[in-house]
Amino acid sequence: MPLPVVICDICFQIGKEIAPVVITVVSCLVPILKSPEGSNKSLVENSAITLGRLSWVCPDIVAPHMEHFMQAWCKALCMIRDDFEKEDSFHGLCAMVAANPTGGAGSLAYICQACASWTEIKSEGLHNEVCQILNGYKQLLGNGGWEQCMATLQPDVVQKLARYGV
Predict the structure, then answer these.
(1) CA nearest 129: which of 107, 81, 83, 96?
(2) Contact 111/70 with Cβ under 8 angstroms?
């Protein structure tokens, strides 16, 4: 069983007790997420899910480092099919952004693409969290900055973001 899967499984079982090893694990996951396109898709997806779960359980530990992996992580999140693992990952994304909004601002276009990758978020709670982070960035950037970011995205991505009230 690959390491990301094992870490993923124990993350919720032990909760915040995983804190002492979180940065070590994240530092192992980031190179996998940043690996070339030809890498093992399953390993990249499992690494993205693991990073999300770690971020959900320990957002204050992971959030200060998000600028080093946010773009690669968001690209990987786009590849994951809609299911509970993707939901867990997005809970982590939202928790991290809530803990360090300015840390994700430079990757906002990637965050938007990841949010638009959902066919439908079935969890109302997660849908509301995604709405909060996107609307938070819209407020943070102001209308001019938000429109500038939206102009960098494909029209279908912008259209999908409308379901989050932005």
Answers:
(1) 96
(2) yes
- Count CB-CB contacts under 10 A for residue 42: 11
Q: Are 8 and 53 in contact (CB under 8 A)?
A: yes
Q: Domain count of the chain? A: 1
Q: Which helix (H) or strand (E) holds 15?
A: none
Q: Which domain holds residue 112?
A: 3-164
- Average pLDDT on 34-43 reads 80
User: Residue 73 — very low, low, confident or very high, per pLDDT cuts 50/70/90?
Assistant: very high
Confidence at 113, pLDDT banded by 50, 70, 90: very high
Average pLDDT for the chain? 90
Cα(59)–Cα(15) distance, rounded to whole angstroms? 12
2 DSSP assignment: -
Cα dihedral sign, 77-109-36-27: negative
In the three-class reduction of DSSP (H, G, I as helix; E, B as strand; rest coil), residue 57 is classed as helix
DSSP code string of 60-82: HHHGGGGGGTHHHHHHHHHHS-S
The answer to pTM > 0.85 is: yes
